[in-house]
Specification:
The protein is α+β, with helices and mostly antiparallel strands. The protein has a domain of 115 residues: SH3 type barrels (Roll). The chain is built from 4 helices and 7 strands, in the order H-H-H-E-E-E-E-E-E-E-H. Helix 2 crosses helix 3. About 18% of the residues have low confidence.
Length: 185
């Protein structure tokens, strides 16, 4: 009888250790799987089917207009009609290019974030989609940031350098022809 009690006691301890090890292993697997899962892919305006037929830079231009409206309204708040001033700004000719500026294309496949200053912690003011054409205006001292202007708007901002590629005239003409055929489809 004493041997049976010792056997029960030993089996009880072994079973308790097995349960503790198994639950610890299961908990570790749970947390490893939770932390190693990639985050959800962001959905951009040009990803939706309703916008697929349009150029990727079209949503950025809309954001630019809505971003400039508050400024125009705040400046024109004493006036009776602030809306015409906004539409007049949108139809004005683009600013002339400063010396050293050139046209480029966004090469980073996730697009770029426009910032107010050449700093990772600076305020975000917009974005530029992949393969969109921009005008590179200048670079900071250490050439790690580029100041760009969106091609069809007045919005300017800073992006990380190395994510744009200079475009020559032949590329511009080929791209325009491709965009026109895409729009006709």
């Amino acid at each position: 009888m004493m041997i049976v009690n010792i056997l029960k006691y030993t089996l009880g301890i072994l079973l308790a250790i097995a349960i503790l090890v198994g639950s610890g292993f299961a908990t570790a697997l749970y947390f490893i799987n939770r932390t190693s899962a990639p985050p959800a892919k962001p959905i951009f305006a040009n990803d939706s089917p309703s916008v697929k037929g349009q150029k990727p830079k079209a949503p950025v231009a809309k954001e630019t207009k809505s971003a400039s409206k508050p400024e125009a309204k705040s400046e024109a708040s004493p006036k009776a009609t602030p809306t015409p001033t906004t539409s007049a700004q949108a139809t004005e000719a683009p600013k002339p290019l400063p010396s050293g500026a050139y046209q480029a294309r966004v090469t980073w496949n996730r697009g770029l974030i426009l910032r107010v200053e050449p700093n990772q912690d600076a305020e975000r003011i917009g974005g530029v989609g992949f393969n969109s054409r921009v005008i590179v205006l200048q670079q900071n001292e250490d050439k790690s940031w580029q100041k760009i202007r969106l091609e069809n708007s007045e919005q300017e901002g800073w992006v990380k350098a190395g994510n744009t590629q200079k475009v020559d005239e032949e590329d511009l003409q080929q791209t325009e022809q491709t965009e026109q055929t895409d729009q006709q489809r």
